Amino acid sequence: MTAATDWRRLDAKIVLVLLILVLAPLIPTAGVMLIAGANPVVVASMSGIWAGAAAVLTGMAALDWWFTTYRISDERVELRKGALSRSHRSLPRDRVRSVDLTADPVHRLLGLSVVKIGTGAQADGELKLDGIARPDAERIRAALLLRESTSDPEAADGALARLRPVWLLYSGVTMSLILAVWGAIASAFGSFSELFVKFGLYRAIGEEFRAVPLWLGIGVPALGAVLIGVLGSFLLSLELWWNFTLTRESSGTLRVRRGLLTKRSISLEEKRLRGVEVSEPLLLRWTRGARTNAVATGLSDTKDGSQPDAKTLLPPAPRAEARRVAAEVLGEDRFPSEGFTGHPVAALRRRITWALLSALPFAAAAITCAVLGWIPAGPAVAVVVLSALIAVAFGVDAYRNLGHRLHGRYLLSRRGTAVRRTVALQRAGIIGWRFEQSVFQRRSGLMDVVATTAAGSGRYAVPDVRTGDGLAFADEAVPELLAPFLEPVPDD
Question: Where are the transmembrane segments (predicted)?
C-alpha cells in the first residue's frame, strides 16, 4: 500500500462489475422471448438497445470511478466522489467500530470486495468502499480494527463456533426462509405468466384439478409447496451460512464469516455489545433448535431491516449450542435457562383471552358457512372447538414462556410463543425505565416493565408483572436509577 496520506482510487475492475450485472439478464431474456415466439428482428433490436444502454451505464460508472478516491490517514478515513456534484465524507479513525467485507459472485470473480466501515452511529456512521482488491480489503480491516498491519489478516485468537453441515437441516423448520422461497416462486410465476399462458400451463393445471378428487387436487399441490419450500429454504440456508465461523480476535472484536456464493465478513466490537438474545421460533423450538443474536449499539432493527442477519452470532443450531455460544460471548460459565421468576395467574388469563379473540374469526367463518348451508353443522362445530383448543394451548404456552430474573451483571427476560426470545441485557447498559399499563392491566394489578437502552431494539420488556413486584425488580436491577422516584407504601 502507498503512504497513508495518499489519495487512492478504487480498483478499476469495479467498472466491469456493473457491465456484467447489466448484461447478465440479456441472454435469458432474449431466450424467453424467442421461446415465446417473438420475432427474431424484435429480439435483435431489443438486444442492441440493451447493449447500448449497458455501454452508457458503463461509461457513467467509469466516470464515477475516476472521480472517486479514498484516504486512510492516522486520524481519519475519507471518501471523495462525484463528477458534477462532489461529496467528501470522513470518519474519525478512533471512532471506527466495525469493518465488514462482502463479495458477491461477480466481485469474487474479479477478486474484489465491498468494504463497509462503520462507527456504530445510527446516522451517517458508515462509509462504503465498493471495489477494493481482496488483499487490500483485508489489510484495511486489519489496520483499522487491530490498529496495526498484520501479515495474516485471517489470524484470530480463537473460534467460538463453527457451522456443522448437519445444522443446515434446521432450515427446513425456519418459517422465514420458507416464506422467502414461496415469495420468490410467486414472483417468478408473475414474471413468466404470459409464457405459461401461451404454452397452456394454467389450462392443463385446471383440467388436472377437475379430473381428480378434491382431496387429491388440494393435498398434492399443498404437499408439493411444503416440499419445495423446505428444499428451497435448505438451499437458501446453504448460501447464507456455509462455512460459518464466529471468532474472538485480539482487538476485542467478534468476527462472523459466512457465505457460499456471496462471502461476508461482519465485525462487531465487543465494547458495543450490551447483551445477547437466544431466539426460538415455534417450529425451530419444537425441534430443540435456536439461534443467537447480538444486542449491540449500532445494530437496531430499523437500521438492519435490509440485512436481518447482520446481528446473528449463530444461525439455527441445537438449542444447547446456541446457549453455549451466548455464554461464551457474555463471558459467563453458562447461559441461564432456569430459575426464572413466574408471572401472576392474571397474566395467564390475559393471554388466553387474546388467543381466543384471535381464534374468533375462524369460528365465526365456520358458523357462517354452516348457517348458509355451505358445510354441514358437524364440521363447523369441529372447527369452532378445534380453534378454541388451539387458542387455549397457545395462550398457556405464552404464559409458560414468561419469566424474568437477575443473573450477575445481566437482566434476563423471556417471552413469546410464535417466537420465544430470551434476552440477557447488561444492567450497566440500561439507561432508563418505562412502566406501562393498559386499562385492563390496571384492573388486574399488572404492568409492563420496559428497560430502555441504546442497543438493539432500544427497549426490552418484562410484561405483565404485579405493579409492586415490577417496581422492586427495576430498582434491584439498576440501584439508585429509580430510587428517587419511589416512595414506600406504609403497612396498614
Answer: 12-36, 48-67, 167-192, 212-238, 354-375, 381-399
The residues near 51 (Cβ < 8 Å, ≥ 6 apart) are 23, 26
Q: Which residue has the cell 417466537?
A: 419
Residues 6+ away with beta carbon under 8 Å from 139? 1, 149, 153
Residue closest to 275 by CA, chosen among 427, 450, 122: 427
pLDDT at 218: 78
Residue 305 lies in a domain: yes
What's the pLDDT tens digit per position in 71-130? Answer: 999 899 999 998 788 899 999 988 888 889 999 999 999 999 999 998 876 656 789 999
Cβ neighbours of residue 61 under 8 Å, at least 6 residues apart? Answer: 14, 15, 18, 19
Using CA atoms, how far apart are residues 129 and 10, in angstroms rounded to an integer? 8
Q: What is the distance between the alpha carbons of residues 325 and 332, in angstroms, rounded to a whole number?
A: 10
- For 449-483, how does the pLDDT look when each residue is reduced to its tens digit (9 = 90+)? 999 998 888 899 999 999 989 999 999 999 878 76
> Domain range spanning residue 373?
345-400
To the nearest whole number, what is the mean pLDDT of the chain? 86
CA-based nearest residue to 143, from 109, 195, 93, 193: 93
pLDDT in tens, 337-384: 888 999 999 999 999 999 999 999 999 999 998 888 888 888 899 999
* pLDDT of 355: 94
User: Please, are residues 6 and 66 in contact by the beta-carbon 8 Å criterion?
Assistant: no
Question: What is the edge-to-edge ordering of all strands in the sheet holding 245-249?
Answer: 126-133, 112-118, 98-103, 263-269, 253-258, 245-249, 158-162
The answer to whether the CB of 332 falls within 8 A of the CB of 350 is no
Q: Does 492 reside within a domain?
A: no
pLDDT band at 492 (very low <50, low <70, confident <90, very high): low
The residues that bridge with 290 in the sheet, in sequence order, are 317
Alpha helices in 253-376 (DSSP H): 282-286, 319-330, 345-371
- DSSP class of 171: G
Neighbours of 376 (CB within 10 A): 11
Give the residue from 80, 84, 103 showing the smallest Cα distance to 258: 103
Sequence-ordered list of residues with C-beta below 8 angstroms from that of 431, at least 6 positions apart, any chain: 452, 453, 454
- Return the pLDDT at 153: 47
Tell me, yes or no, whether 231 and 328 share the same domain.
yes
215 and 265 in a single domain? The answer is yes
Write out the E strands in 63-106: 69-72, 76-81, 87-92, 98-103
| Residues in contact with 413: Cβ distance below 8 Å, sequence separation at least 6, in sequence order | 403, 404, 422, 423, 425, 451, 460, 461, 462
CATH number at residue 44: 2.30.29
> 445 lies in a domain?
no
Cα–Cα distance for residue pair 246/329, rounded to 1 Å: 10
